[in-house]
Amino acid sequence: MDEALWQKIRQAAEESIKDPGKHKKELPKAEPASGQNFVVVFRHGESEDNVNRIFSGWRDSPLTARGRDQARVLAPKLKALKIDLAVTSDLVRSKETARLALEQVPGVRFEEDWRIKERNYGDLMGKSKEDAMRMDPEKAVLWRRGYDVPPPNGESIQMVEERVWPFLDELVARIKRERINVALSLHGNSMRAVRRYFEKMDIVEELTHENPLGTDYALYVID
Fold first, then answer.
1. What is the phi-psi region of residue 68: left when phi exceeds 0, alpha when psi lies from -120 to 50, beta otherwise?
2. CATH of the domain at 213
3. Is 121 annotated for ligand binding?
4. Which residues are tagged catalytic?
5. Domain interval for residue 102
């Protein structure tokens, strides 16, 4: 990879440790025309592992009080949208965020799908991101933000795409068939895959964007 691009990816990885969920601009929000259906996507609120700079991956890490407040920030923003269905991962931080963010939306149904859960960090799960950066920063960045390099016994970001994108293909077909609007309660890396799918990002954009913890959402129209 070009050295300048690698340094950009490394900087993004380091910044995400210093301030998890810090983002520089509002997420994109299309404006559905009358009769158009849509998907709303957001990342879970701050978890205990976010605070402690721990690789969560597939392990459960509950929301902090701040994380619950972040999810509640979404509630009035989503209240005005007609959302029929919310899909969460099978992890508690995704489910709790969805319940709080959609508590003002009447009649919303909830489903789970494991394919939108966080990236499996394998042997890194439960370990410190800061320690990993101190011990071997090049390898730590490669494992965290390398597109096709998985951590030991874990998933690469490309592998996350390989389960998220078929889920999205099925979801888009379902939305068109059932004429419903859907909210997705996501994780940092599953949201990268979702945004690349809908926004046609290149790989470097996908690897360097930091998605906010709660508080904001993206909206995509389904034609």
1. alpha
2. 3.40.50.1240
3. yes
4. 44, 118
5. 3-222
